[in-house]
Amino acid sequence: MQENLSFFINQTPFTEHPNAPLAPFSRQELVKALNFHRSIPGYAPTPLYTLPALAQKLGVKNIYLKDESQRFGLKAFKALGSYAMACHIAELVGKDISELPFEVMTSEEVRHDLQTVTFATTTDGNHGRGVAWMARQLKQNAVVYMPKGSSQQRLTSIRNEGATAEIVDMNYDDAVRMTAEQAEKYGWIVVQDTAWEGYEKIPQWIMQGYGTLMLEAIDQLHQVAPTHIFVQAGVGSFAGMVQGMVTAAWGENRPKVIVAEALIADCLYRSARSKEGDAIAVGGDLQTVMAGLACGEANSIGWKLLRDYANAFASCPDEVAALGMRMLGNPLAGDPQIISGESGAVTTGLLALLMTSPELAQTREQLGLDAHSRVLLVSTEGDTDPQQYLDIVWGGQYPGINK
Q1: How far, in whole angstroms, is CA 272 from its chain's centroid?
Q2: What is the torsion angle, in degrees rounded to the nearest 10, for the CA atoms of residue 273, residue 229, residue 36 and residue 166?
Q3: How many CB atoms lie within 10 A of CB 284?
C-alpha cells in the first residue's frame, strides 16, 4: 500500500510574495453563508466526533472527525456550495445575501421579480446532487453532466432531485468545458467549483459556502484550533477554503494543513513539487475509487491558497481510502462507528499510515505529528453509492486491489 504513497513537504511556501487573498475567507465573510444555511429548513450542524481509542492507537493526543454524511439528508457536504446559487439570485434581484434568508428568497414576491434560472454543472455525483437539490428548493431548474465511469446510483439520486442529468463519454475536466459551452449556448448559469480566468465569482461563493462546516467545527471545538487538519482535494476548492480560513483566522499560528489527493489525479501534489508556482494539469481517464477527487485541473483560487500556505501534499493510492473506510466503519472499542465513503475516508487512512509506518517517520517529524497533536479530519461523504461501499468494505472490490 505504501509504495505508491508519496508526500511533498512544502518547506518553502510562497509567503514572501503571497498572491492568494485571504479576505474572502475571513469569519465575517463566511458567517454570511452560515446564516443563509441556518435559514434553510432542516439545517443542523453536522456532528463532530472524538475518536479517543484511535488517537491512542496512532500516538496522537486527539482525533476529531466532522461527519458530513448527515448534511441535509444528502450524505455529503457539497450542498453547502449551493450557497453560490443563492448569491447569484440575490445579485439578480439587487439584494445582498444577508437580506434574503431562504424564506424570503423563495417567496412569491422574489420569484415574481425573477425569471426562471437554469443552473448547470459537472459532477461525479455529490456536487451535482447538491446543485439539483438546491435548484428544487429554490424552484429553479438544474442540468447536470457526469463524467464517464460515474456511478449509476449517483445519477439516479440526482435525477430524483428533479434535475436533467446524464453521464457523458468524457473525463471530468473535459465535461466541465463541455458544460460551460452548453451553458453559453442556452443561457444557463454554470455552478462549478473549478475556477479559471474569467470564472471566479461563483467558485469563490461555493468555497465560502463550504466554510459553514469549518465554522461549525471550530465552534464545536470551543474556538480552540487543532494543531493539524487533514483535507482531501479534487480541484482544491474545499481544501483551499480550509487553508484560507485558518490562515485568515490564526496567521502564523494556524494549524498545519495536509492535503490528500488521489494518486491518479494528483494535480495539486504535482504542482507543489514543481515549485514553479503555476498549477499543473493531469490528464487521462482519472479512474479512481475516490470519484469525488477525480479532477485533474486545479481551482485557481484554491491552488494559490494551498501553494502559499499549505504544509504538505500527499498523493494517495486507492488502498489508502479503503483503509480509512474500514477503520471508521469498524472502530476500536469506545469510538463511534462512522460510515464514510471513498473520498471521505482517505484522510483517516492517510493519518493511520503516516503515524504507523517506519518509512514515514521523517515525514511525521517534519510535520510535528506526535503525542501532543490534536488532529481534525473531515469525512466529506457517507455511502453515497451504498453498493460500492459494501463492495469495498466487505469484498475489496475496486481498482487497485483486484488487479
Answers
A1: 19
A2: 50
A3: 10
| Cβ burial 316-328 (10 Å sphere, 16+ → b, else e) | bbbbbbbbbbbbb
pLDDT of 401: 41
d(CA 243, CA 215): 13
Could you tell me which residues come within 8 angstroms of residue 367 by beta carbon, excluding any fewer than 6 positions away?
Answer: 9, 228, 256, 258, 311, 312, 354
Give the other-Cβ count within 10 Å of 72's Cβ. 23
- Mean pLDDT along residues 155-172: 94
**pLDDT (mean) for 85-96:** 95
Whether 130 contacts 81, CB under 8 Å? yes
Residues 6+ away with beta carbon under 8 Å from 186: 118
- Kindly give the interhelix angle for 27-38 and 201-220, rounded to the nearest 10 degrees: 80
Q: Name the 3-class secondary structure at 21.
A: coil
Please give the biggest Cα pair distance in the chain.
Answer: 64
Q: State the Cα–Cα distance between residues 45 and 113, nearest whole angstrom.
A: 32
Which triple of cell numbers denotes residue 108?
412569491
Separation between Cα atoms, residue 155 and residue 128, nearest integer Å: 9
Residue 153 clears pLDDT 60, i.e. is over it = yes
Cell numbers at 28, concatenated: 465575517
Q: So which residues are the catalytic ones?
A: 78, 124
pLDDT digits (tens, 9 = 90+) for 331-343: 999 999 999 999 9
Q: Provide mean pLDDT across the span 34-55.
A: 97
CA 79 to chain centre: 11
Q: Which helix (H) or strand (E) holds 378?
A: strand 374-379
Query: Which strand ranges, in their side-by-side order, compose the sheet holding 164-167?
Result: 164-167, 141-146, 118-122, 189-190
352 burial level (CB within 10 Å; 0-12, 13-18, 19+): middle
Assess contact for 238 and 231: CB atoms under 8 A. yes
Give the residue-averaged pLDDT of 60-65.
98
Mean pLDDT of 308-330: 97
Identity of the amino acid at 307 = R
Orientation of helix 318-329 relative to helix 342-356, angle to 10° = 90
